[in-house]
Design goal:
With about 270 residues, the protein is an alpha/beta fold. It has a domain at about 25-190: Aldolase class I (TIM Barrel, Alpha-Beta Barrel), CATH 3.20.20.70. The protein has helices at about 1-25, 60-65, 115-130, 140-145, 150-160, 175-180, 215-230, 245-260, and strands spanning about 30, 45-50, 70-75, 80, 95-100, 105-110, 135, 170, 195, 200-205, 210, 235-240, 260-265. An eight-stranded parallel β-sheet has the order 1-2-3-7-8-9-12-13, with helices on one face. Helix 3 (about 115-130) packs parallel to helix 5.
Length: about 270
């Protein structure tokens, strides 16, 4: 009987310390690493939640990261297209205008059937790889082109993604999120959170340097994110900060006070 009790106690301790050891490997809570090379994917297990461009990762790559307890969101560009993406030539008819500061990228008409089919196919391919959620970029097309057609096109795309029952983070897109969630009589339920870039910092694209954000913009985003939290959305920040401990501390304190997740990137390429 004593041997059985000892064995049970030993097994329980093994489970406890094994779990603690696994948790201890997580150095950070959140990272946006869209430019990460799959060959460097071992760093992803240092985070609780990561955002990657899963188009460049295999199903096995993603499963290996998830096996270490990391939640994997995938980038999906729903409002613009880069010329290097597969399928660009067939979608040139959807192009609206060039994307400032990003050569070889263009805003698209999200109401076009061929664009919506393209996004649906891309999403299914990503789901087949086993991703845990979507990180949707460039709903800001509605800010640039605030027409009923563009709004309805984004809603249709999101409702189609919602059928997968996966969490959806909107990267930016504050004008669209305001209309679809914050000010809507019936909020678009498939949106579960927002990721906002450059609340406290900004990028000077002419010199590729990282700067402080102006105070007016910071206040605008803080008000917006407070409304998002009040609406029950998860809130994440991505900052591009100089190596300044005071700025990093300000971001950390703000996020901890408001129960937000954050990532401070040393590179505008989000590759480390």
């Amino acid at each position: 009987m004593k041997k059985i009790i000892v064995a049970i106690v030993f097994f329980a301790l093994l489970l406890i310390f094994g779990c603690a050891s696994s948790t201890a490997t997580k150095q950070h809570s959140y990272a946006v690493l869209l430019g990460l090379n799959p060959e460097d994917s071992s760093i992803l297990s240092s985070y609780d939640t990561v955002v990657i461009d899963a188009q460049y990762f295999t199903k096995g790559d993603i499963a290996a990261v998830q096996a270490k307890g990391t939640v994997v969101y995938t980038y999906l560009n729903i409002g613009s297209i880069e010329t290097f993406r597969e399928g660009y030539d067939a979608l040139k008819g959807c192009v609206l205008s060039p994307y400032d500061n990003w050569p070889d990228e263009y805003w698209v008409d999200v109401s076009r059937p061929e664009w919506q089919l393209f996004i649906a196919n891309e999403a299914q391919a990503l789901i087949d790889k086993g991703i845990d959620g979507f990180f949707l970029d460039n709903a800001d097309v509605y800010y640039l082109y605030p027409t009923p057609e563009i709004y309805s096109g984004l809603v249709e795309i999101l409702e189609n993604l919602g059928r997968y029952d996966k969490p959806i983070l909107m990267n930016g897109g504050d004008v669209f999120v305001g209309k679809a969630v914050l000010d809507a009589e019936i909020p678009l339920a498939c949106i579960t959170g927002v990721n906002q870039e450059c609340v406290f910092t900004s990028i000077d694209f002419s010199t590729n340097t990282l700067l402080l954000q102006d105070e007016e913009t910071t206040r605008y985003y803080q008000d917006y994110l407070a409304r998002c939290k009040g609406a029950g959305l998860d809130v994440y920040l991505t900052e591009y900060a100089p190596k300044d401990a005071r700025i990093n501390k300000k971001i950390q304190d703000y996020c901890e006070t408001n129960d937000f997740q954050y990532y401070i990137s040393p590179s505008i390429n989000l590759d480390r």
